[in-house]
Amino acid sequence: MSFKPNYILGASSVTVFLDGKTYTINKQAPSFNAVISALKANDKQKLQDAVDIRTGIAKALQKNSQSVRIENNQIFYNDREVTGVIATRIFEVIRLGLDVNPMIKFLENLMKNPSKRAVDEAFGFSEACSLPITPDGCILAYKRVREDYKDVHSATVLNKPYKLFTAEDMAVIKATQGKRGEVTVSIEDGFTTVSMPRNLVNEDKDQTCSEGLHFCSYDYLKHFGGSRIVVLKINPADIVSIPSDYNNSKGRCSRYQVVDELEVENNMPTEPIPDGYVDDYAEESYNGESEEVKKESAPQFSRKISDFYAEMIREMLNEKSLTEIAKHFKISRRTVARIRDYEAPYNN
User: Fold this and answer.
1) Does residue 1 form part of some domain?
2) Are residues 222 and 325 in the same domain?
3) Buried (b) or exposed (e) across 144-182, using 16+ Cβ within 10 A?
4) What is the pTM of this model?
5) CB-based contact 276:301 (threshold 8 Å)
6) Are 45 and 64 within one domain?
7) Which stretch of DSSP H or E encloses residue 87?
């Protein structure tokens, strides 16, 4: 007897009933096309392989992760069972057939955090504040800074994205920063990296304004001053505490990377960080910039884009949006806006 599958195709998913179990596969899932193909072919084995995502992921984890494994309905990090919000979210990602690797890498990073309290707080913070996770398992958050990119509190720490650096900025970061010289600013993987000794960061969540490198959620931005807003990439291993005020929407860490700047209008970003997994700032996805941009962003140069390309961008603004141009040249929207408005260093 030939196999006839039982299924229904919805607006955003397909639901299959197979061997007494119901499987719902989201259209965004990598396995969606394989499921549809198996349904068209009336091939039971191919359909079973396509819908049984958890088994496939469990097998893949055995090859790709030395620390995380899935057994039946349990997730383990080494010999420790992972429960709570993060386990629920991992299984939800698996159920939808989405890429679970960013969550697995996030878990691996998180478990390297030496503080149990920080481990307990970190995922709840990113979940509650809708902060995206990068493919290499870090979170993206916000920070307000002054017009000169110095931190608002001490006005001593430079938080400027490296792609906007001038020769003068390179000289500035060679000096120790912070009120007591406890902060180091360097360039790593093409990004401005800010760090301080972890044991100098206050780990008490009930002391809401204290020592440490600060970051926040989108909603917290309206509670804090600072004319610019930068995007931070934070490894959960470096999170120290999530202060309890403002519904746990800000945090302190010992290290972050400044990966971008957001355009500000009416004191808030014109476009928040996108939801979901963000590829732009994963370590393995960083391939540097184009040769023209590399040349112009080298420390001995004071400009990010040459005069030739700046004029080209101004002409393109007649037909394309800031976002389209920024993606085309692999620069930030803020840089495009600077060129448009003839702001320094594009005012000659």
Assistant:
1) no
2) no
3) bbeeebbbbeeeebbbbbbbbbbeebeeebeeebbeeee
4) 0.71
5) no
6) yes
7) helix 85-95
C-alpha to C-alpha distance for 260 and 178, rounded to whole angstroms: 21
Name the residue range of residue 313's domain.
293-348
- Of the pLDDT bands very low, low, confident and very high (cuts 50, 70, 90), residue 285 is low
Type of residue found at 155: A
DSSP category for residue 222 = G
Is 330 part of a structural domain of the chain?
yes
End-to-end CA distance of the chain: 79
- Is the pLDDT at 271 greater than 80? The verdict is yes
Among candidates 208, 212, 241, which has minimal Cα distance to 119? Answer: 241
* Most distant CA atoms of the chain, gap in Å: 79
Q: Which residues, including other chains, have CB under 8 Å from residue 209's CB and lie 6 or more apart?
A: 243
Report helix, strand or coil for 174: coil
C-beta separation of 14 from 96 below 8 A: no
Amino acid 39: pLDDT:
92
Return the bridge partners of 186, or none.
193
Cβ proximity of 195 and 183 under 8 Å: yes
CA atoms of 103 and 86, how far apart (whole Å)? 8
Would you tell me how many other CB atoms lie within 10 Å of the CB of residue 294? 11
Can you give the C-alpha Rg of the chain in angstroms? 23
